[in-house]
Amino acid sequence: MRNRSVRESVGSIVLGFELIVLFLGGLVAWGLHVAPSAVVITGGVVLIALAIVAILTLRYRVGARIGFAVQVLAILAGIWVHMMFIVGALFLAIWIYAMYSADKVERQKHNETENPQ
Length: 117
Fold this sequence. Notes:
mainly alpha
């Protein structure tokens, strides 16, 4: 079993929690009939699938970019379910902080292995 990077660990936690929120947001959109059922279900499934792809590709830089796209799309879902503007913005802030912090920890670990005291 390979060691996961801090970016993978933290990113998968954020996206994992967001998967629950996206599912529940899709249920709210469906229950409020904000759009035809097929559109709501398709949009929800695509967004959830994109989050899963981001989790699976977090070992590469593209995974973080896909994760960022999920955050932006979650905010845009606020067009139909207005609370998603707030929820999406909160997850975007968490995502940015998590990715920044993970990179910082990775750099520190890298520097410590190169220059042991």
